[in-house]
Amino acid sequence: MNISVFSSNKEVSARAAELIAELLREKPDAVLGLATGDTPIGVYEALVERFKRGEVSFRQASAFNLDEYAGLPPEHEQSYAAYMAKHLLNEIDLPLDRAYIPNGLAADLEAESKAYDRLLEQAGQLDLQLLGIGHNGHIGFNEPGPHLHAGTHVVALTEETRDANSRYFDHLEDVPSQAVTMGVGWMMKAKHVVLIARGEGKAAVVKEALFGPITTSCPGSLLQLHPRLTVLLDEGAARDVQGLPGVRYL
Ligand code: GLP
């Protein structure tokens, strides 16, 4: 595990974007695993800037998003489909038929999950999985609990997660109670996982996930077992890991 701390979130985003751009230069048809939430927005901004400068192309790449809320149409501004369109997909040259996001509107979400797994299997291994982490340690929407799933599945969102994500909705009741998420198996099989976190609000969970016990009570802790995990933090998110093994300040 390699943990880099940057003095600002802008630098975290720039470094994550650089890793993705480097991968696409080496392997133009790379399979990317993409995340949503506030944290990756700066990464996508930096990638769009690089694309506009002609430094990176996604033309041959494909991308799989981690998750989608159940019941939100892609036109709903809080759907992850809308998020991806706004922050990345409408701005770059990645063919939309190779930008996969689970369909939260599918009548049969179990069947949708299986279909998503088949698409992932066909694509082979994810070359790079970009990840954020929830305050309760969730990755994608794999919530803490007695067990985790390897494959894509339907998940009931915890009240903590609904509450955290209610900032994007008018009312807490508007936050969907279910989602479809890629399972932790796909993340663990990715060739490279890039975990990003920013702000002191994430400091405790960053320490717990990276230095605490490996437990399904903190899904992010599984990442300690990943053979190639790059962690990019700003100083706030790194507050509780200063001086711990593998943490370097850039
Ligand atoms: C969301 C997403 C996760 C994301 C997390 C943290 O619910 N499903 O993929 O990592 O919560 O989001 P943020 O970056 O906004 O803190």
Describe the model:
- By secondary structure, the chain is α/β, with parallel strands linked by helices.
- 31% of the residues lie in helices and 18% in strands.
- The protein has seven helices and eleven strands.
- The protein has helices at 9-26, 41-52, 80-89, 109-123, 159-165, 184-189, 203-211, and strands at 2-6, 31-34, 62-65, 67-69, 99-100, 128-131, 153-156, 178-181, 193-197, 229-234, 247-249.
- The strands form two sheets. The protein has an eight-stranded parallel sheet with strand order 5-3-2-6-9-10-1-11, with helices on both faces.
- Helix 1 (9-26) packs across helix 2 (41-52).
- The longest helix is centred in the first third of the chain and has 18 residues, at 9-26.
- It starts with a strand and ends with a strand.
- The relative contact order is 0.19.
- The model has no long low-confidence stretch (mean pLDDT 97).
- The protein binds 2-amino-2-deoxy-6-O-phosphono-alpha-D-glucopyranose (GLP).
- Residues 35-39, 66-67, 132-134, 140-141, 161, 165 line the site of 2-amino-2-deoxy-6-O-phosphono-alpha-D-glucopyranose.
